[in-house]
Specification:
This protein has 2 helices and 3 strands. It has 127 residues and is mainly alpha-helical. The chain has one domain (7-97). It has a 3-stranded antiparallel β-sheet, with helices on one face. The longest helix is centred in the last third of the chain and has 47 residues, at 74-120.
């Protein structure tokens, strides 16, 4: 496997468009220009340099969609999956913290209510 020199790279047309880039974030101002998902199968493996993939579905709520051009680039695909999983993990962590903060507020209100009832019955809180 040979590595192309920089002179040869500039003579080839780039499959990157204005709304997608290798490991880039999609243009969020115009979602109509984003490409449709393509399924990578061995039958279309010869067209890997022109293929693009959109990571969409339920994962889209964790941040902007990520597009990549070269489906044969396994490391790039792994980086994108890792990025999406990291976003999901961070979002889940924030959601869990918010949920625990809500529970804390509820429990503190219940504690005050019970202390109020106990004080009415003659209980003195420790100081």
């Amino acid at each position: 496997m040979s590595i192309s020199s920089p002179e040869n790279l500039s003579s080839k047309p780039s499959p990157v468009t204005s709304d997608t880039a290798f490991c880039g974030i999609s243009n969020l101002t115009n979602p109509m220009q984003t490409p449709k998902s393509t399924v990578y199968t061995p039958s279309n493996a010869s067209d890997t340099h022109l293929a693009s993939k959109v990571l969409a579905g339920p994962k889209a709520k964790y941040g902007p969609q990520i597009h990549f051009v070269d489906m044969a680039d396994k490391k790039g695909a792994q980086r994108i999956r890792n990025t999406m999983n990291s976003r999901k993990h961070r979002q889940n962590k924030l959601d869990k913290i918010r949920e625990l903060e809500k529970k804390l507020v509820t429990i503190e209100a219940e504690k005050k209510r019970w202390q109020g009832r106990a004080t009415e019955m003659g209980w003195k809180p420790p100081q």
